[in-house]
Amino acid sequence: MQDLFSCLPAPLAQVLTPALAPPTDAARDVMRLSLMDWMACGLAGQDEPVAKLTRALVRDEGGAAQATLFGGGKLPARGVALANGACSHALDYDDTHFAHIGHPSVAVLSAAYAMAEREGADLEQMLDAALAGCEASVRFGILFGRGHYQQGFHQTGTAGAFGAGVAAGILLGLTPAQLGQAMGLVSTRASGLKSQFGTMGKPYNAGIAAANGVEAALLAAKGFVSDPGALWGQNGYLETHHCDGEIDETPGFLMEQVSHKFHVCCHGLHATLEALELLKPLDIRQILSVQITTHPRWMTVCNQPAPKTGLEAKFSYRMVAALSLTGHATAALSSYSDALCADPEVIALRDRVQVRADAELSETEAIVRIETSTGAYEAHHDLNAPMPLQTRRARIHAKVAALLGEKRADALCRAARGTLEQLTVSLADEIPQ
């Protein structure tokens, strides 16, 4: 495989080689679950304001009927990737990979689906391209490093664009040299800022990444020339975007360790919510204080102290802890509302929650300690704790059913093992105009 990329700069070949290895059954199984997860998030999120606005934008632009939108109609693949990426990230409920703190599937699958439909690929070809793209996204994200993220760049939008370009390029049948040109183009397009967290700009970042990947691959297929070495060297992406990571050449698919979300909020909050589940039930009238200990990385991501909107609540340790302890299901969309952010009972408990950082914890861990009038209780959870495939499959099916209903969940599960045409029928189901 390394020889296949001998025409590319060595560092780029090192990143791409493991991503484009022959897929394993285990990696395919996980990717199929992520496909179901992505579809459910897009269908459930299609009425969100960011989904409606982005969909309206690409509908107004019009163009060739190449791929299907969440929300209806067929449009050019690049516009569909943009709209579907924003739509499926609107709820912030899609999968995350902690190796680079990003959402790999939302950008990559939005690009891969649009290009597969455009090119007449089948479902298995689309899944394999998406797996390669997601793997590339994670490995580019590791290369970009924590400095890139801490400086304010949103890995879903930056590394995600490279992964989307890989997936789109595979489905277009790009040669290794052309794929190198596409990566050079992505390096001048990849963007996305953490400052958008809590606004429509965050899901838009995912859409931008998907569209950037599709655009770069399409231009490379037409013979567009860029600098395949634009990631490295003076004025390259790594230098200008505060990247401090290293190339990870670990064999196998890192995508097998993707973390699916089972609460409708930022993934940085999930270890805390899982720990809280271990402490329930508690009489909230007896709670004196709640202390959440998390990794310092999350303090600038999801620690909004007093959110006013449901969207802001998805990035608040204090609010999600209060919602959970007052009996509001954090896996339910309805729990993240402006009304609950103003609820006196929720606010009263929110104000008893303290958040502290501890660098000794990993980014996937959290400790919750609750002091009550009758004693103290403490629980720990690590999202990286192994989850058997059957357990993961059952939890994702339950999540899809909660979002779409049992009947539609069953239909989506069948479609994910059927044909691309069946998947398109599911994607276009119950479409608002």
How do the strands and helices of this protein lay out in sequence?
Layout: H1 10-19, H2 25-45, H3 49-61, E1 67-68, E2 74-75, H4 77-88, H5 104-119, H6 123-150, H7 155-172, H8 176-187, H9 201-221, H10 237-240, H11 270-279, E3 287-294, H12 310-313, H13 317-325, H14 338-341, H15 344-350, E4 353-357, E5 365-372, E6 375-382, H16 389-404, H17 406-415, H18 420-427
Parallel strand pairs: 3-4
Antiparallel strand pairs: 1-2, 3-5, 5-6
What's a quick, concise take on this entry?
The chain is an alpha+beta fold and 433 residues long.
What is the CATH superfamily classification of the largest domain? 2-methylcitrate dehydratase PrpD
Report the β-strand fraction as a percent range: 5-15%
Main β sheet profile: 4 strands, mixed
Strand/helix succession = HHHEEHHHHHHHHEHHHHEEEHHH
Extract low-pLDDT stretches.
Answer: none
State the CATH architecture of the largest domain: Orthogonal Bundle
- The whole-angstrom Rg is 21 Å
CATH class of the largest domain, please? Mainly Alpha
**What's the CATH topology name of the largest domain?**
2-methylcitrate dehydratase PrpD
Structure characterization notes:
It is a single chain. This protein has about 425 residues and is an alpha+beta fold. The chain has 2 domains: about 290 residues, 2-methylcitrate dehydratase PrpD (Orthogonal Bundle); about 120 residues, 2-methylcitrate dehydratase PrpD (60s Ribosomal Protein L30, Chain: A). It contains 18 helices and 6 strands. The strands form 2 sheets. The protein has a 4-stranded mixed sheet with strand order 4-3-5-6, with helices on one face. Strand 5 and strand 6 form a beta hairpin. The longest helix is centred in the N-terminal third of the chain and has 28 residues. The radius of gyration is 21 Å and the shape is globular. The mean pLDDT is about 95.
